[in-house]
Amino acid sequence: IIVGDNPVELPYLSKDFVISRSGSTIILDDKHGVKVKCNLAHRICAFSISGWYFGKTAGLLGTYNYEPSDEFKRPKGQIANTATVHAKSWELKKNCKSNNLVPDVNINENSDYYKSCSKYFKHTSSPLAACYNEVEPGEYFELCLRSLARASDQSKALCNIATAYVMECERNYLELSLPSSC
User: Fold this and answer.
1) Which residue in 20, 77, 120, 154 could disulfide with 11, CB within 3.0 to 4.6 Å?
2) DSSP sequence for the chain
């Protein structure tokens, strides 16, 4: 880990934040209630913020006001109609070419992508189903479809999305294991 251009050992403690490691997960906790957990093995990061920030955020993490209708609010207040448009509107440097790693795609329900994603995010026999009532799997299913359509290693992409879902379930106090294929 690099802090201020200097490599540091973990755990790292400063007056403003702590960086620690648990297995393949790096965790940053700051004194203002911001937490970032990154699973290095699956290249997934989860962000959480304290209630103090309620209604005070905008951007890629949303508005944090429990109003789904304005989660995709752009910098000038308009509402983006897709996640891609929303993300692009928050780019800091317009002259830098960005790469949309999960573009919108149309997938046939008979496709292998659809069947694989359904197995984890739609079926009641899924190893993730115990969390369906706590964390709505629909967005993860959609992300799974878009990721698999573009992935060179579909098994790894599927496990990355499953990891993101498990991390969100854990944030909601529900312990799940990754599917055995992961």
Assistant:
1) 20
2) -EETTEE-PSSEE-SSEEEEEETTEEEEEETTSEEEEEETTTTEEEEEE-GGGTT---STT---SS-GGGTTB-TTSPBPSSHHHHHHHT-S-TTSPP--SS------TTSHHHHHHHHHHT-TTSTTGGGTTTS--HHHHHHHHHHHHH-SSHHHHHHHHHHHHHHHHHHTT---PPPTT-
